[in-house]
Amino acid sequence: MSKKTVLTGITTTGTPHLGNYLGAIKPCIEASNNNDVNSFFFLADYHALIKCHDPERVAKSSREIAATWLAMGLDTDKATFYRQSDIPEIPELTWILTCMTSKGLMNRAHAYKGAVDANQEAGKTELDDGITMGLFSYPMLMAADILMFNADIVPVGKDQIQHIEMTRDIASRYNHTYGKLFHMPSAQVDEETQLVPGLDGRKMSKSYDNTLPLFCAPDEMYKLIKQIKTDIKQPGEPKDPDSSNVFQLYNYFADEQQSQQMRDKFVEGIAWGDAKKELFELVDSKLAKPREEYNRLMNDLGHVESVLLKGAEKARQSSAALMDEVRKASGIRPLTFVPEKTEQKVKKEKSSEQQLKAEQGRKRGILMQLKSVLAEVADSDDSQQAAKVLLAQKEAALDKLKNKAKEKAINELDVLKEELAQYL
């Protein structure tokens, strides 16, 4: 059984936080150790440019994310870890896919529709105000990311399922037009994934400014943990662990025994300050060694760069070969190139006998459709005049028809002339 290819992109617009680690980094690294899959992870720095026009932020985020995944134990001998902008075939494929994608499909993209709706609600007359072509067309870049390596599985959140469906539509249209080169990817949505709460209880997100940076200094981490929103229950009052953000975060890092002990303390009325202190101590103990490695890597960015370039070289073994096939299939070829399909078509050409049978079959089909009008001519008192009128009507109708409809009408007229010749 061939290995499945799993692909994950990480947008380089922010500093990795606990939510990123628990929701994506940790499960992805664990999954990459499965010998039955080929794992591809990439820094989506081209995607970052869609919404972030701060070059220092994009560059800083790229450094931090690369160092974070390596510090957390990603084995780059098993997984392919690269930077999107180091794969020149991706923007090239994006353009070819753009030429295959209908604007109507992009009009239905959630991000674009959301931006248009926001402009409408704000009373703006120009509904595309502030919307760049990057935002409008980024599902095509995402499709290129996926199809470039013929990914079978793409782990995504529910809000990203539409993009996988769009990728399938785009791939299907290309395959139908030029030949089957792309696989049909499937979205992998973990229904059991829980939202990691931020400092204010909402989903931890840089958009809400409520994150706990993964590798900040211990003092800063403790200071932020103290800011986690809690209720007003006093020390000694029983507290509900299942509705507590402090307990939820603790539970993500605790083993079964630690979790039960903390649950008991909540029921017994642990003070919020003590609960937050225990949360800090547990998180800090789990992140101490990775933090040390992260800091080492951030002071040796030359090594991190070399790892990414090595990953890009490994990735391009696949992308360059597939892109060569895509170019040739699309007609972008050396002048001396002769496609194999030409020979196949010669072999499949119909013999004279087969062509005659096909023509006879086509004629029988047309006669079936004309059966009633031919009968009317035959039954007419003046069949000659009826035949002339019918042919005149059919010829007059040709001027109003186009393309396939006109071609069909011409074929019918030819058959009519043959059948009505006996009356003329």
Quick overview of this protein structure:
The chain folds into three domains: 4-195 and 300-330, HUPs (Rossmann fold), CATH 3.40.50.620; 218-296, Tyrosyl-Transfer RNA Synthetase (Orthogonal Bundle), CATH 1.10.240.10; 352-423, no CATH class.
Structural description of this entry:
The chain is mainly alpha-helical and 424 residues long. The protein has 3 domains: 223 residues, Rossmann fold, CATH 3.40.50.620; 79 residues, Tyrosyl-Transfer RNA Synthetase, CATH 1.10.240; 72 residues, no CATH class. The protein has 17 helices and 5 strands. The strands form 2 sheets. The chain has a 3-stranded parallel sheet with strand order 1-2-3. Helix 2 packs antiparallel against helix 7. The protein starts with a strand and ends with a helix.
Helix and strand sequence: EHEHHEHHHHEHEHHHHHHHHH
Strand content: 5-15%
In this structure, how is the largest beta sheet organized? 3 strands, parallel
Q: Quick one: CATH superfamily of the largest domain?
A: HUPs
Number of strands: 5
Number of domains: 3
Count of runs of 4 or more consecutive helical residues: 17
Widest beta sheet: strand line-up: 1-2-3
Fraction of residues in helices?
Answer: 55-70%
Low-confidence stretches: 342-347
- Integer-rounded radius of gyration: 32 Å
- Secondary-structure content class: mainly alpha
Which CATH architecture of the largest domain is right?
Answer: 3-Layer(aba) Sandwich
Write the CATH fold name of the largest domain. Answer: Rossmann fold
N/C terminus separation: 70 Å
CATH class of the largest domain: Alpha Beta
Instruction: Indicate the overall shape.
Output: elongated
